[in-house]
Amino acid sequence: MNTTNTSTPSAAGPIAPAWGAVISMTLGVFGLVTAEFLPASLLTPMANDLGINEALAGQAVSATAIVAMITCLLIATLTRRFDRRHVLLGFSILLIISNILVAIAPNLSFLLMGRVLLGIALGGFWTMAAAVVMRLVPEYLVPRALSILFSGVSIATVFAAPLGSFLGDMIGWRNIFLLTGVLGVVVLIAQFATLPRLAPVGHASLRTLFDVMMRPRMRFGLVLTMLIFTGHFAMFTYVRPFLENVTGVAISGVSGILLGFGIANFLGTYLAGALIERNLKRTLSIMPIIMGFAGLSLATFQGSSTIGDSILIAIWGMAFAAMPVGWSTWITRTVPDEAESGGGLLVAAIQLAIALGAAVGGAIYTASGALGVFGLSGCLLLVAGAVVLLGLRTAPQASAQNEA
């Protein structure tokens, strides 16, 4: 077990990067995001088994997001006296329990109970993720470390979406959640072995959270983050119904297309790290615009070409990969002295966006189907990208020479 004490804060971070700890956190991301978005690929069988419609089943995503949003605003204050290593290990334990509860759920209420525990783990982990990474690697390596961390999101997309839908038909959706619980055990072991002691730093109070939110650039950036993630998750939550009902793809085809989305997202995560190092603002603006054009094109062509839809969904996945990395990097540069509180606010905005995306997307889906969801989401993403380009301010990046 690694017991190196990295609790002393430093603007530049540690001299030697703790890549093993970064990798173990990446595994945590993989486990949490896999569990979070499994309902998107298992929506139909979950709804049929529980005797509810797809729009209601989609609120399993909303419930997790709402709890995560509340958690990320409170967790830094509630755990301000605890070693961050122990807190992160606690989130992995919640991941395990959550998946077991979902796997044995006899009804929607029991299912939502398990998703609430997942929301606590998600909100807490993402609140601390960027702040912890800042203490594991030197400042100039933070974008690279974050791109590694968020590759866990991309890998989870590969597993949660295509493999979830494919294996769900073979072994049942409940067994998929049990396997995700086993994954949580692996995460817990890896983090126990590699995470160093991380004594709490910063002020971590509700007052601090408010003060950070009132800083000049924060509110503007948080609103833009919420708009972008709302547009994305409205489309993503209902991508399977779009492919099945509009494009007319069979389940094996849905799995293949979602696999393409995941692979493109994985490649895009590493591309994002290089782009962010060159120009953070440009990356944060161009990628939502690309996502918006992809969504509008999918709605416009109305499933006329399976190959065309597959390409557009892959482009969307690659472009979205830059968003979690980019906005987390923006937090580390905008509020480096209170990165944990800033991370909590960022996660709150994202989780609210996920809840809005699933809920509003469900309402639009009921009224006008998947075409309406993709069309309106595409417009929202185009507007958000343009506003980022015109109005967002970013701080400069540190260099390796400055770290020396």
Write the SSE topology:
Elements: H1 19-50, H2 54-57, H3 59-78, H4 84-103, H5 108-136, H6 142-171, H7 173-194, H8 206-213, H9 218-237, H10 239-247, H11 251-278, H12 280-301, H13 306-320, H14 322-334, H15 339-391, H16 400-403
Helix pairs in contact: 1-5, 1-6, 1-7, 3-5, 3-15, 4-5, 4-7, 5-15, 6-7, 6-11, 6-14, 8-15, 9-12, 9-14, 9-15, 11-12, 11-13, 11-14, 12-13, 12-14, 12-15, 14-15
For the report, how would you describe the main beta sheet? none
Output the CATH homologous superfamily: MFS general substrate transporter like domains
Number of H/I helices: 16
What is the CATH domain class? Mainly Alpha
Principal-axis shape equals globular
The CATH architecture name reads Up-down Bundle
**What separation lies between the terminal Cα atoms?**
29 Å
Structural class: mainly alpha
Order of helices and strands: HHHHHHHHHHHHHHHH
Strand % is under 5%
Average pLDDT for all residues: 83
* Poorly predicted spans: 1-12, 400-404
- How much is the radius of gyration in Å? 20 Å
Based on DSSP secondary structure assignment, what is the total number of beta strands? 0
Helix content: over 70%
CATH fold naming: Growth Hormone, Chain: A
Q: Please tell me the total number of domains.
A: 1
